[in-house]
Amino acid sequence: MDKEKTGTRQKNVRAAQAEGVCKRGEHGGAAGAVFLDWYKRRAASKIKERVEYWARLAGLRHGGIRINSAAKRWGSCGRNGGLNFSWRLVMAPHAALDYVVVHELSHLVHMNHSPDFWNTVRRIMPDYDAGRQWLKNNGHLLLV
Ligand SMILES: [Zn+2]
Questions:
Q1: Domains of the chain
Q2: Is it the case that residue 114 has pLDDT exceeding 60?
Q3: 73 Cα: distance to centroid of ligand 1 (angstroms)
């Protein structure tokens, strides 16, 4: 690292300290990382459990489940039928988590957001709108 970069970095750290913002990892350190790891693993198994529950109920077969850390996209469905979910969803109410699961499962039937797609969502989970609205209004709360 050249001298100029080091200087800039020190300046940034000083600026962060002056604002009362902590440096990355300052709080939790190793313990924080271990906790987050544990939490993500628990989140993954909870989400997988909900996917299997709804898939069985709807009689749908998916192409595997992957859990990521996406902050803007709660879930997605790949062309191969693979489903992706953000572990952050477990911080949402059950209705919201279930809505995202049913939404992505419905993409196994319709790869779009057509009226047929929404009919499929409604057929699987008639009260899906409560979870959908919660995410619209409060989704940003999951970005901690
Ligand atoms: Zn969609």
A1: 37-143 (3.30.2010.10)
A2: yes
A3: 10
CA of 12 to the centre of ligand 1 (A): 40
Place of tokens 């709108």: 129
Does the predicted TM-score (pTM) go above 0.70?
A: yes
Helix or strand or coil: residue 109?
coil
The per-residue pLDDT for range 14-65, each reduced to its tens digit, is 554 455 565 555 555 788 888 888 999 999 999 999 999 999 999 999 999 9
Q: Cα of 104 to ligand 1 centre, how many Å?
A: 6
From the CA of 105, how far away is ligand 1's center (Å)?
A: 9
Contact criterion met (CB below 8 Å) for 12 and 5: no
Contacts 24+ apart (CB under 8 A), 104-113: 104/75, 104/76, 104/77, 105/51, 105/54, 105/55, 105/58, 105/60, 105/62, 105/77, 107/77, 108/60, 108/61, 108/62, 108/77, 108/81, 109/60, 111/77, 111/79
Ligand 1 center from residue 30 Cα (angstroms): 37
